[in-house]
Design brief:
Length: 270
């Protein structure tokens, strides 16, 4: 295939029909630039996979139990997540207008033809290249002193050495160094400390991060802020990526986003 030097595009496949998912995976094997990193059977699984794996592409059926494909795209657009490119693969053509209204990259009708899929992959490769160029241009305009964690917001608040954590209807004050990691889900920030877990009164991860020591707390993933002194183990994961096993009671494993993998290597000299 031409342009073999193109960077790998990671993909998640979601279809409630296993045979259809397997057929698409078989077709995608002919495109070495595509790496399938996850598969799901319904819309809720799709949301979880996308939030955890941060794929470049999501091949998504329309009609699925629980949450349909269009609902998946809408839910992610309402969140603060980085949106992947959605490629709908369905047997129904009546949803195409709605799919493109929510900025779908493409709309493939089953059975999917290889030539049609090749056009889609080429479009995805071009979109990835455009995004990388835009990111490089933006990075050139960013002051490195304000970007120590890759998603480091401008510091608008003084650094805090104490944090309020709500747990079991009580408000506890803990030293910030006892914070192992923070995570956000449905707008609620959970703080995992040395002794217990609870909720934060911050509204966003960015606000919390801005109030803490940037040399200690690092945004490893858009949904996670970690205390680098509480990383117990770095676990190799998919190609050139890692998970962090934290020093909490559950030994929680936290994904490192692709954008932050390089930063991790710098932090820990991997």
């Amino acid at each position: 295939m031409p342009d073999r030097a193109t960077a790998t595009l990671t993909a998640v496949l979601v279809d409630d029909e296993q045979l259809a998912c397997e057929e698409l995976a078989y077709l995608l094997k002919e495109f070495p630039e595509i790496e399938i990193i996850g598969t799901g059977r319904n819309g809720l699984e799709a949301v979880d996979l996308i939030m955890k794996l941060e794929p470049d592409l999501v091949f998504l059926d329309i009609q699925m139990p629980g949450l349909d494909g269009l609902g998946v795209a809408r839910r992610l657009k309402e969140s603060d997540a980085e949106i992947p490119h959605f490629i709908f693969a369905t047997a129904y053509d009546e949803y195409a207008v709605e799919a493109f209204r929510i900025n779908a990259m493409d709309y493939l009708l089953k059975p999917i033809e290889r030539e049609r899929l090749a056009e889609t992959i080429e479009r995805a490769k071009q979109a990835l290249q455009d995004r990388q160029r835009a990111g490089a241009a933006a990075g050139a305009l960013t002051d490195p002193a304000l970007d120590s964690g890759g998603a480091q917001p401008a510091r608008l608040a003084p650094q805090r050495t104490k944090l309020l954590v709500r747990s079991q209807n009580r408000n506890f004050i803990v030293d910030s160094q006892e914070l192992i990691y923070a995570t956000i889900d449905d707008g609620i920030i959970t703080l995992a400390t040395v002794n217990f877990e609870g909720q934060s009164n911050y509204r966003t991860i960015e606000e919390l991060q801005a109030s803490l020591d940037s040399e200690t707390f690092w945004r490893a993933h858009r949904s996670y802020l970690v205390n680098i002194n509480r990383i117990k183990e770095v676990v190799p994961w998919f190609k050139s990526s890692y998970q962090l096993r934290m020093d909490d009671k559950k030994h929680t494993e936290i994904p490192v986003s692709r954008m932050q993998t390089r930063r991790l290597r710098e932090l820990l000299r991997l």
